[in-house]
Amino acid sequence: MDSGQIFNLVTIIYFAAMVLFFLYLAARNNTLGLIATLASFGGFIAHTAALGLRWYESYQILGEDGRAPLTNLYESVVFFSWSIVLVYLLLDWKYKQRSVGAFVMPFALFSMLGAQMWLNSGIDPLVPALQSNWLTYHVITCFLGYAGFAVACGVSIMYLMKIGKEEKHQGEKPMGGLLGLFPSTRILDDINYRAIMIGFPLMTLGIVTGAAWANYAWGTYWSWDPKETWSLIVWFIYAAFIHARFTRGWVGRRAAWLSILGFAATIFCYLGVNLVLSGLHSYGSV
Amino acid sequence: MTEKKNSYIDCVWDFFCSLKLTLFIMLLLALLSIIGTVLQQNAPAEEYIREYGQSNYELFVNLQFIDMYHSWWFIGLLGLFSINLICCSIKNFPRVWKFVKEPMLVATPGTLKNSDNRLEMNSKEEKEQLAERLSTFLGKEFAKTIRSESDGKIFLFAQKGIYSRFGAYMTHLSILIVMAGAVIGNIWGYKAYVNIAEGTSTNRVWAHSGQLPIDLDFTVYCEDFDVSYYPGGNRPKDYSSNLVILENGKEILRKRIEVNDPLTYKGLTFYQSSYGSTGNPVFKVKVTVNKTGEAFNFNARQGEHIKLPDGHAFAVTSFTLNDRKFGPAMQLHVNTPDGKRGRPFIVWKNYPEIDVKRGGLFSFALIDHDDPQYTGLQVAKDPGVEIVWLGCILMVFGSLTAFFFSHRRLWVCLEDDGGKTKVQIVANAHRNQPGFSLAFDDLSQKLEATIENKSQ
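Above: the input entities. Below: the structure tokens describing the complete assembly.
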């Protein structure tokens, strides 16, 4: 069995987990929720194993030029998916809010699907510029940061779906239906903030390691390359989000919208810059 | 009059301290930064004119969009951002410093009554003794306690993680440090490049900004340049240059640099950046006089006319490493003794017999070719870079401290209550209250057991 086959299997497991989360919301059956979480966890274990196997395979194919599986668009998307599930599982463990999975697992699933369907999964040797340990630190920190933002975005969507209904909802009786299973808006708002608190320092570290690497490779730690600039844009948006919490009126709805805007900018920083703009991070050219 | 003036100053001060200004600047910086990612920066004028037209180009120049990250308005906004950062910090710092200078040793009745994390119980034990035991317990399980007394009550106070209140200030300071480092690098540093052909040396580099070269007070000698490829293609695997630093003709330093592994000397760092042919290939050509079978060897530079014994001359005019899959080939022509230029023809290194069949007075064979390479180096002098790293390290630690740690405080109040001792314990955290509540629940169970004098 090679890593590609396991990645396919992982994709199927994530799909099953997502469907189970939806069923859980529809049927309000806690067993389904538990199975969905366990499926996500099982998928994550297989995902981790496949990443390790791909690392090993790179040494088999390239000999001494093997490298961590974090070097091209395919590998980065697969790692992004892995990071999202990791951050989700951590938050689930801490908050025990099952239904969040229904809004986070789709991000992980679509990353995997996209990678398997459209991207070149070949293991190619690295150009000299990428032959550096900084690559590993840079990619890991950036993507864990992105994953925090992805979870925050999923939770914000839930928040916005629920808050409108909750405001109209009258009386003591708890809300029924799908939205009744959602965590309370207070908890959703809190998870949103917390996921960004995980994402922001990691993203900061990602920018710093990128700058350190650039300085080591080219002699400039910052050159206003589109990728660098967009990472700064993302950083500013989330910095604004964090500071907005201190001012009245910027929790809840506005915070949720800011979180979604931030994640849209993150996705553009990650994919849009490579596909639309030009610059130093040319791994994304399709 | 003075009052009015004061209120005016207050207004300005409040403006610069305001969090709304912070949010506005951050989102504006994010929005404006997009321009430079869509519009190519620092390209030649013709490119903008071709793509956007003359009038738009002039507009871009006037708005400084061509080099927007160094425009007065962008730098100005960053300046305003720093001022806002400094003002906010000055405004809020005393409040935080007070937590260190004057810790609230005694819980107010309000805190005792309304705290989210509280434990209240009665004990038959005398309060002095209980205070002693609780102090020991908390010292072990939470933090060292400070004891105080007022109105016949005994208070204990303990706190943890007060440094986390400074995380935000560390982060803010770090941003200013990074900016200071960047300014220093921009003023006293420069970026330059230099191409050095193998076996030659230089003591000047060319700045990216400006026409004149910068003289170095040492010499850089490129002993050799080497490029290796991955098997089965022309994807470069590694390229590296052997550099030697010479001062007054004496070797000071020697290093083989490659991409991601530069050389630094006297504050200047040389980065392997590119390579290429010097365009001065030398060809070892064997010329055979067809009539006599006499053969001569020549080292010919490209374009150089070389006299043959009978007054004819030849010159190699071009060369390729791979001509239509036939391998290395050169193009040359032969001039008659009176200077008349002959028809050009091609000689393939791997098929010398073809040229014998061409006929004519001479036949040519390409024995060998040497194409000296130059190494392309980026040269950077940045005296601010260490300051930038200091700022970055502080930023990472500052934001981790600010986000993942909290200042946790705990108060104990013991008072006589009709022969018994009334125990009230409250605690709070300035961040992550839900997490702290869990920790407090755990602690209060142990506290209860301690107060009841049961062993756990």
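Note for the figure: The mean pLDDT of chain B is 88.
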